[in-house]
Amino acid sequence: MFVYRFGAIPANVFGEVRLPPEIAAIPPFATLITSMFLHGGWLHLIGNMLYLWIFGNNVEDAMGHVRFVIFYITCGILAALTHAVTAPSSTVPMVGASGA
After folding, report:
1. What is the dihedral of CA 50, 51, 55, 57, to 10 degrees?
2. pLDDT tens digits, one per residue of 29-68
3. Residues near 91 by Cβ (< 8 Å), separated by ≥ 6?
4. pTM, whole model, 2 decimals?
5. Is pLDDT above 90 for 22?
6. Which of 5, 30, 76, 98 counts the highest number of beta carbons within 10 A?
7. Which helix or strand (DSSP H or E) is residue 60 part of?
8. Is 100 helix (H, G, I), strand (E, B) or coil?
9. What is the distance between the alpha carbons of residues 15 and 94, in angstroms, rounded to a whole number?
C-alpha cells in the first residue's frame, strides 16, 4: 500500500488512471519526487547509496551542496518521466533513485 501511495505510477502521473481516495495520499506529480526515496529492497538501497557515495561526493564537491540537491532532484524527476513515457499506461509503481 505504501508503494502505491508514494511510488510513481505512470498511468496515474499522466492522468489515465485515478487512484482511489483511500490510496491517493499526495498529488500524482509529487510521486515523481517521493518515488526517489523508496527502494525495492535492501540490495537496491545499498547499490544506490554506494554509487551516490562514490560519484555523488565528487559531483557535490564541484557543484556545492544546494546546487547538487537541485541537480539530484531534477535528474530524478527527469529519469522517472523518461521511464514513464516508455509505458504511459503502466499501473506498476516505479521506485528508486537510480536515475538521479
Report:
1. -40
2. 999 999 999 998 999 999 999 999 999 989 999 999 999 9
3. 9, 10, 11, 12, 17
4. 0.84
5. no
6. 76
7. helix 57-63
8. coil
9. 16
Work out the burial of residue 5: count CB atoms within 10 Å of its CB; fewer than 13 is exposed, 13-18 middle, 19 or more buried: middle
CA distance 25 to 82: 23
Q: At CA 19, angle to CA 24 and CA 85, rounded to 5? A: 105
User: How many Cβ atoms are within 10 Å of 54's Cβ, its own excluded?
Assistant: 9
Identity (one letter) of the amino acid at 73?
I
94 burial (CB, 10 Å; 0-12 / 13-18 / 19+) is buried
**Polymer length of the chain:** 100
